[in-house]
Amino acid sequence: MDERQALSAFAALAQEHRLRIVRHLVTAGPDGLAAGVLANAIGVSTSNLSFHLKELDRSGLIEARRDGRSIIYSAVYPALSGLIEFLMRDCCQGRPEVCAPAVAALSACCNPTGETAHV
Amino acid sequence: MDERQALSAFAALAQEHRLRIVRHLVTAGPDGLAAGVLANAIGVSTSNLSFHLKELDRSGLIEARRDGRSIIYSAVYPALSGLIEFLMRDCCQGRPEVCAPAVAALSACCNPTGETAHV
DNA sequence: TCTACATCTCAAAACGTATTGAGATATTGG
DNA sequence: CCAATATCTCAATACGTTTTGAGATGTAGA
User: Which CATH code fits A3-78?
Assistant: First the structure.
């Protein structure tokens, strides 16, 4: 992850519909969701959704695969990891206690039934 | 962290100069940096820097305090934690192995002299 | 092949954001 | 108080992005 990629990713996430798309796909897991399912979940026209999906694909945050008539989109988890790492790299002058809450929040995020850390 | 705050934060990070400012401040630690120091480090006019610092302040990612004639800016680490948690909340349908790289990357980020995970 | 379905492409209009330079404000030391 | 320093405000210009609707493309089943 370099600066150019990070800027592209943050720009992709800085839009209401695209942020919702990514969060739906992050929650959906590696199996992903069809474009039509996303259009209903987010509440945008298919034309507009297509525009946003293309932006997200260009940024590398999601990927597409065809399955019959549908196109299935899924989150690219390594891109999300890379973005987090880029943002927090070499943080806090070696004072880990400053960043501990971030680590705790992320560690808890894979546990939808348990207590999720809401920082 | 709600959607409105997250959108504001991502929009703030989706700009070359602002992303550099945040990364400088994240690296600088809680002591922060003066506006003039940032202007030199980033290479923008003081007028333009002021505009971007205000955007970042509005988004809650940085905060300001006066110290004599200087104004010292510093990263708001809980806002960064909250943003990461918002993005990754309830991820991957309970398959922690999908998100493990993100946790590892973030855990390693407080260690500037050791091996930083470059995912 | 024909039809229905799922998704994408394109151009135009509407909208918001970044940069610039001149000038204003606030603080310190003499 | 005055001058120097540090930072901020404002308005104009330039630029890029989002939305919309009509139509095109690609796929599956009868």
Answer: 1.10.10.10
User: Do B53 and B84 contact (CB within 8 A), yes or no?
Assistant: no
Chain B contact for A4, CB < 8 A? Answer: no
CB–CB of A54/B118 below 8 Å?
no
Q: Which B positions 96-115 lie with beta carbon below 8 A of chain A?
A: 96, 98-99, 101-103, 105-113
Give the global pTM: 0.92
**Numbered ranges of CATH 1.10.10.10 in chain A:** 3-78
Q: Is A70 on the interface with B (CB under 8 A)?
A: no
User: B43-95, pLDDT tens digit by residue?
Assistant: 999 999 999 999 999 999 999 999 999 999 999 999 999 999 999 998 888 88
